[in-house]
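tRNA pseudouridine synthase B, Candidatus Propionivibrio aalborgensis. Tokens?
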Amino acid sequence: MNKTRRSWQRVDGVLLLNKPSGMTSNSALQSARRQFSAAKAGHTGTLDPLASGLLPLCFGEATKFSADLLEADKTYEAELLFGVTTDTGDAEGVVLQQRPIEFGRCDLEAALTRFRGRISQVPPMYSALKRNGTPLYQLARQGIEVERKAREVTIDELRLLDFSGNACRLHVSCSKGTYIRTLAEDIGNALTCGAHLTALRRVAIGPLSISDAVTLDQLSLLSEDDRASWLLAPDTLLQSLPDVHLDDEAALRFSHGNPVNIAGNIKVAQGKCRVYGATRLLGLGEADGLGGVKPRRLVCA
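Tokens:
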């Protein structure tokens, strides 16, 4: 039986996917890619298989900006189970210890105050961080534990949504690099009973919200045109950056990889910016604070 060969095509845009729990980020990416027959695809940072929620996917020219979203703050809803610790810090791990629960809601609320603002975290062994080129989770699976340096992260919001005596649900807004599994463990340790993460849902990344996301099942039921309507413009990932609009001559220079001078018509602070011509996004620029902008990443027409 001959199989029909898939015809991959150029697709440019951003898809806000609502990833289900139990699926790897790469599997979700490849499934969405097949539905769009997109020749080129990537994501903006992974979610653990246990986690669900917002996973922005990039197709075509949008992949050039995927790394820029990694810097954005994240918002989660997390479920914790108290009294039980695991080797991974979440429900997928092996139980290490069980301890009695001897605290109430007021004690939990008081403990949460310690984890708001700038805090220090030791990254978990079950993480993608590397030691001498080897991911820590691979070492952990071999029973090897190595020393990890603590690093500072920021918890902008930590709010108790529900508490049932041995479990709770939290709303967490945090900076990049924050490990929610580690936060769960640290909260459990502060209450002297231990805890682990039983569910995690990402509901926002910067200005992007889960309310605007679509599931793989929903996409599969749509026509090609309706499916395409879920694609957002490539500059969706750059909306937090200031924008620069060039005249035709400057746009041509910029699109050919040359720096341009914008001091005469617009002021842009030093740093990254979105650069547009008359009708389209030209790419990502770097302003020098003195009126000049040089190309960092260019978009093909």
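The domain at 74-205 is CATH 3.30.2350.10 (Pseudouridine synthase).
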